[in-house]
């Protein structure tokens, strides 16, 4: 037995010198100390030892097992130490090198203006509603009192997905969806992307709009102007005023274009306002009675006003941007100008 242990010890020591990684260590364990390993198997060989010699042989085997396990533990500690040293070396930081500067991001000008507008109207009690970007003809045109022969329905103005399915041309369908599910009084703001077949320095096939709707008893055009005065003053300054000009929209009657007194020159006349003292910012009006009827609201009892704001339009005015395309090009030189 002692000769067998001596030979196994010499073999184990030779293999120990070849252990350098955790994989080698695992193989070493399997060969010698696992359930079927050579050292563990010595106990089974006691059956071949004469009965009177078994106590001494068992003692020798146990001592050898303790030694072999000690060798394994020492190997494990050495490999762990070597791997830790290698990791530390790989992760060494040269403190003499300049630090890596990570620039902070900033909100896109469209997002900034959208949030500002929402904050202003939320302070007036408006709720936010977001409708689908792909709309049916009924919500996008028909129930908004847009006649079948209206130019807005033409394919050169509207993107058609199917015969009666379109990419919404405005966020006004949110009015219909809100009045279908809520009874007056209603005070809702509908932000979102809209799509029209138009592209130049001040128009884009895809842009952002903010629709507002108020429906209650006794609502008039004066309520619209008073609310818009508060809105433009919050965005452009306390001295800014609004002016209403007659216009036409199928879904409002009367309809108005809303101008704001030039916040650049104070109304005296400058290149921004084309020397008129006024800048057009949005459209609105009193909700057409047909639109109310189409949504099950009695126009004899209730009235309302609606308005639509082009968010890019406000952003271009507020930040002096002269081309709408700059806001969708993702040019960092442009976007960095809006960091706080």
Describe this structure in words.
The chain has 340 residues and is an alpha+beta fold. The protein has 2 domains: 2-90; 109-338, BirA Bifunctional Protein, domain 2, CATH 3.30.930.10. The protein contains 10 helices and 10 strands. The chain has helices at residues 2-16, 22-32, 54-90, 109-122, 137-140, 173-181, 221-236, 289-294, 311-319, 332-335, and strands at 127-128, 134-136, 160-162, 165-167, 186-195, 206-216, 242-249, 252-261, 278-287, 303-310. Strands 1-5-6-10-9-8-7 form a 7-stranded mixed sheet, with helices on both faces. Strands 2-4-3 form a 3-stranded antiparallel sheet. Helix 2 runs antiparallel to helix 3, helix 4 packs across helix 7 (221-236) and helix 4 (109-122) packs across helix 9 (311-319). The longest helix is centred in the first third of the chain and has 37 residues, at 54-90. The protein is elongated, with a radius of gyration of 40 Å. It starts with a helix and ends in a 5-residue tail after the last helix. The relative contact order is 0.10. The mean pLDDT is 88.
Quaternary arrangement of the chains shown? single chain
Instruction: Going across the biggest sheet, name each strand in turn.
Output: 1-5-6-10-9-8-7
Tally of domains: 2
General shape: elongated
What's the helix count? 10
Helix content: 25-40%
CATH level-two architecture of the largest domain: 2-Layer Sandwich
